[in-house]
Amino acid sequence: MKTKAIFCFYALIFFSCTEKTTNEEQEMTIQDPHSYAIPEESKVTHLDWAASVNFQNKVINATAVLHLENSKDAAKVMLDTKGLNITSVKSNGEDMDYSLGDYDKHLGRSLEVAITPDTKTITVNYTTSKAAEALQWLDPVQTADGNGPFLFTQSQAILARSWVPIQDSPGIRFTYNATVKVPQGMMALMSAENPQKVSADGQYSFKMEEPIPAYLLALSVGYVEFVSLGERSGVYAEPSVLDKAAYEFGDLEKMITAAEDLYGPYKWGRYDIIVLPPSFPFGGMENPRLTFATPTILAGDRSLTSLVAHELAHSWSGNLVTNATWNDFWLNEGFTVYFEHRIMESLYGRDYSEMLASLAAQDLQDEIAEMIADDNAKDTHLKLELEGRNPDDGVTSIAYDKGYFFLRYLEEKVGREKWDAFVKQYFTENAFKVMTTEAFIEYLETNLIDKERINIGTVKINEWIYQPGLPDDAVIPESDRFEKVDKEMNRFVQGTPAEELESEEWSSHEWLHFVRAIPDTMKIAELKELDDQFGFTKTGNSEVLAAWLVQSVKHEYESAYGRLETFLINTGRRKFLSPIYGELVKTEAGTKMAREVYEKARPNYHFVATNTIDEMLK
Ligand code: BES
Ligand code: ZN
């Protein structure tokens, strides 16, 4: 069955159109290959969600009332679902005709409901399946405090449909209200206006008054508490983690102010963060008003908080101006990495942010080399072709770091002042709208290139977006601070003892660079010397540890294997798991070890992590 969502959005700029429109603004048809929705026929504009969270059976029982906006001859509304057990679909109390389409392993099943143009709402009663991919149900032992179970969701990219029947396309926005019933004593939180105290009866209500796409729907239920960090920000975490988290995010208010000074007002009211248990598969997720974060960023010295700057930046890039489809994912992530680095630069200075840029450059060059070697050159284009594939395939450093370097290149072409004015205008004029790569190019040409009379011949827009690798005039930064690190590594390799290396002032980024710079030819005795001197195997910094474990596997430094095993069992952050398992599977002995550890670790991982690691170990 071939299905695609086709939807229209209003572009301020002029495109050729497949549909005639009377609107003054031109309409453009965009196809989202990852949704069954047909929003130009009937579009969800608001969701009323009433749910009860059942930890015993690990299911959510819910009623979703979907408010529709219909075309004048609408006959059906198309929704996305995955694994939902639907018990009824009604409108005004009457049963509606509905049917579920064939199952697709990425897309799930369409839910087609017959309507008339006058149908204002439909009400779907359903239960999630035990295997719902967005949901991770944790046993008490998988939490920090072990006080009770925990549930969190991860909807991006196309997993919202596994817990809500919805039009699960980033180009379709709706507001929502929710009431959620949870066991007494637990706190429920959503990507919405949130409570700060545990409710006496386990009942919570939520509202999100700004329209959001489905991938930003989020729910977390656990024994967490809140602490305020400032006027409009705070942090939720399990009690034993709360103080550490509050310390780590001490600069959050400053970050929000810095972000606003750069690119305009924060539009979402509050900005809170919840620190989840360690199986959370990402570093962070930009759920509006409530970023979800991994505890692996709690390094104790605020050294990994660029991740907070990143998720905060998504409040503009992604949450306000949203990629139209997952093929345009670089618009979300590339802009966010760019904005993240600018926030870090304004808080901690250029030489600090240049370390981040330099780490990004390393990641990017490695990834490009690997993809080209694997014959996946097309996946190094900024504009992706993910139809028929899992949109997760697009989560690579191309969207993030090539996207970042493209925007940085544009900044350098036109100068920071003009560039910043342009970016601010871009966020302001496109707020709560969707953006395709093509519409972005048009917007860029109109509002920056033409306006500033820049010779387009020297700006290789198409090469960046539609060609593999990096254009030859890409600027790849060199960090002075990293040059010093390289010098020290060289001295060590030449025979200077580890204890004589000059590393007193190093931040965790310098340490990360140092560990990454360990040459393949280094001997085990030398690794041991470094470890004895600098304590890598026992470091509390997860980024440094993950890089060190990769080196340990590569060099068969067995002293680190104990820590490697506990780390893999306790941490579910995919960004760390993939390189470590990836290094293990390069040898036969490593593969054996990977399989053994994975057997113990797998029950602790979220679907998005097992989906990746299953593939590596099969
Ligand atoms: N939105 C992403 C996470 C994501 C992307 C989830 C695609 C599912 C599909 C989030 O903002 C992100 O980029 N997280 C990074 C943070 C890092 C780049 C600072 C992560 O989790 O490592
Ligand atoms: Zn991101």
Descriptive overview:
The protein has 618 residues and is of the alpha+beta class. The chain contains 17 helices and 23 strands. The strands form 6 sheets. A 7-stranded mixed β-sheet has the order 7-6-10-4-3-13-15, with no helix packed on it. Strand 3 (42-54) and strand 4 form a beta hairpin. The longest helix is centred in the middle third of the chain and has 24 residues, at 350-373. The structure holds ligand BES and zinc ion. Ligand BES binds at residues 156-157, 282-286, 307, 310-311, 314, 333, 395, 400, 575.
The set of bound ligands, ions and cofactors reads: ligand BES, zinc ion
CATH level-two architecture of one domain: Orthogonal Bundle
CATH topology of one domain: Neutral Protease, domain 2
Counting H and I runs of at least 4 residues, what is the number of helices? 17
What does the largest sheet look like? 7 strands, mixed
Q: Identify the CATH class of one domain.
A: Mainly Alpha
The helix content is 25-40%
Number of strands: 23
According to CATH, the homologous superfamily of one domain is: Neutral Protease Domain 2
Structural class computed from helices and strand pairing = alpha+beta
Uncertain runs with pLDDT below 50, 5 residues or more?
1-27
Q: Provide the spatial order of strands within the biggest beta sheet.
A: 7-6-10-4-3-13-15
